[in-house]
Amino acid sequence: MSGLLQTRGLTARYGDFQALFGVDIHLEEGECVAIIGANGAGKTTLMRSISGVLVNAAEQVIFGTDLIGALPADQVMARGIAMVPEGRRLFPSLTVEENLLVGAHGRKTAGPWTLDAIYDLFPILRERRHNPGTALSGGQQQMVAIGRALMSNPRVILCDELSLGLAPVVIRDIYAALPRIRAGGASIIIVEQDIGQALKVADRVYCMMEGRVTLQGRPADLTRAEIHDAYFGANA
Amino acid sequence: MTHTVTTRTRASRLATIAAVLLIAAGLALPAFVDRSMIKDLFFILTMLTLAQYWNLLAGYGGLVSVGQQAFVGLGAYGLFGAAIVWGMDPVLALPLAGLFALAVAIPTAFFAFRLAGAYFAIGTWVVAEVVRLSIAQWKAVGGGTGTSLPRSVQADMTGTDFVGTLFGVRSAAAQDILSYWLALALAVATIGGIYLLLRSKAGLALAAVRDNAEAARAVGVDAGRMKWLVFLAASFGTGLTGALIYLQKGRISPEAAFSVTDWTAYVIFITVIGGIGTIEGPIIGILVFFVLQTLFADYGSTYLLALGMIGILVMLFAPRGIWGAITDRTGLQFFPIRRRLQKTPRPEP
Amino acid sequence: MNWLDTILQGILLGGLYALFAAGLALVFGIMRLVNLAHGDLIVLGAYLVMYLVGALGINPVLAALFAAPLMFALGWAIQRLVLNRVLGPDILPPLLVTFGLSIVIQNGLQMGFTADSRRISAGPLETASVDLGFVTLGVMPLLTFASAIAVILVLNWIFYHTAMGRAFRATSDDPVTASLMGIRPKAIFAQATGLAMVVVTVAALYLGMRANFDPTIGPARLIYAFEAVIIGGLGSLWGTLAGGIIIGVAQTFGAAVNPEWQILSGHIAFLAVLLVRPRGLFPRAFD
Q1: Interchain contact B312–C (C-beta under 8 A)
Q2: Which pLDDT value is given to residue A198?
Q3: Cβ–Cβ of A93/C286 closer than 8 Å?
Q4: Per-residue pLDDT averaged across B274-296, rounded?
Q5: pLDDT 10s digits, A41-51
Q6: Fold of the domain built from segment(s) A5-232
Q7: Which of B45, B245, C3, C162 has a C-alpha 20 to 30 A away from that of B84?
């Protein structure tokens, strides 16, 4: 199987607790893939495993031709996979601009994303650049978190629960940035609980339940009933 | 089949029998061995007791204190004060000395508990310094230079005559035997008391607090009260032990009675090397420490440097100590406090 | 007692305690590690400076310049080889390891340099003083205080105006998210401890020039440093300086009443602040 990034038989565990049971997903160059599923389906665990926060067997995550499953987060990031973590997690003692700059800490390659490019993408951040990151609204914080990930000019950007806790109008603004991020050359994996939103932006969708992929395909090819069963279980 | 909760193991039943035999042998021992051996055993028993109390604090209570020398010194000075100033019989003054340490432990806890986590450790050290500097101002017990217990006080100690007649020895030897018996009683009471505490409901609460203070609070365990209980119990016991140690030494000075090396560094070493968070750990630890002390103490700095190195290496590579390594391999437990489910045959109707 | 003189001497003494404390605060701020060997590392630094003065025949300040990179390397190595292995949610292992380190350093120094007390000779500087008319101040205490302010200014500049400082603060806030930014928390910790050891070298220089030292005095310096940090409240290094000044003034006042009470008065001032302001005078906004 080809692809930019893939997981093969990923079995992540937290100590004795197994959270993923042989998850196979893949992402092609230039693609946007959405992972959907209920709370506890294993979506965030999957993101943490790919990004290196959770360390697995080397051959369970493959980037290009490299086996990266066992690498720690900083090395995964240095290879070009950036993450927008769940809950945004801005650094409270850093200003907006410092939060963005720290995103470029591990940057090895040049690319389209600079401080100015981020400010063009989210103009409000330019105004708030010297505020502490945590003084911003939830939506603005999400913009900082996305900008921070982009600052490293990643080849892959992982977005965990972009719309969590945000108002619909704010979610629309955030998602409006996705095409420009793709145009900048990054491939995207988004984790989303909002199925409608995910189907709208993604080229392909994976649905997860209880640590397994239960359904995958192009949004146009999936029926509501299929998704409902894959999301809640066939007997629900 | 039904299930019952038990903490007992077969080893623990054997250990109970062995312990009773050991105590009996310990009591009779002075009839068979010479005075220097009695002194060695006194050293072993008192250091073991101090280590058990430190282990109760740090290993079970999560309260890492590096200021336990405060309570050793307070107990010791309490005893000297009662004997010299009030002319009390030192043996009878022992519990009073423990209470003296306890009395200072209450304000100490009040201050030290305001310091979270790692800062608690240095906080206890500050208090120990304050206590040392204050006691050095107490002129009646020799101020900064220290003093000795008057000979008459020592010779008239309760029980000396009895022991002297029993074993046919002179007063000085009788005092050593008496101190040894008291140390034996204190060590047995300490180990027994800690064991019972840990097996009780309070012990369960303590384990819960150590593992996860938040979760423990959520199920109704009062973490603050457990910390107080453990800290005060350890202070009283440490004070009592300190008093007994200096009753046997007969001479005291602030430098010695509040020594970080003697009463905290050694005690931590004993606990860490043996296995922190277990009752068996300090018992193994004191045996190892005694051997090292006997063979190498004359090397002074080199010896202490080596002890420090060993302590660091143990924390790095075997943080559960010797006893931890033994239980990992054999599952042996002499003082089981872990609760296990056990299948029991359903009784016939 | 000359009140003004006593207060000024106390403030200047506070500069020395702030120098002791800055490294401790730095390390605690970034990795929540309380290094019980901090005082002994200061003493080790003093011996290193003294040794370089003797071996190279240079003046103490130059010797401290040579000692600083060595101390940085030592701090970096201790963090890399020992402390990084024990850092974690359990506070017990790092405390016990640094306590062990304290014993190792004290006895190592005892073996290398004997228990005799030593001093770094600073020549005429030791007794030089400035007469301000209403009060006379020693040049050495003034230099110490000025150095404390300089150290705090430099550290603040590093924290707030360099990429390294940004990475320090990010790691201090949230090491896991920092690692998602390509920061290696363990490498940051090693750099921070190295930097703290450079500050320790400055503290060591003044410790050694101002008074006699021997291998056993480390723990007392740790305690002064700790008191200054707690009184300051972990919010900023300026708070730590304020903490050092409070300890210093309390000590000089205690000593003015009765020389035996100098140290005790400092400790009592600390306990009093702890009683009234458990989180210190300038607490951190978030934790």
Answers
A1: yes
A2: 87
A3: yes
A4: 93
A5: 889 999 999 99
A6: Rossmann fold (3.40.50)
A7: B45
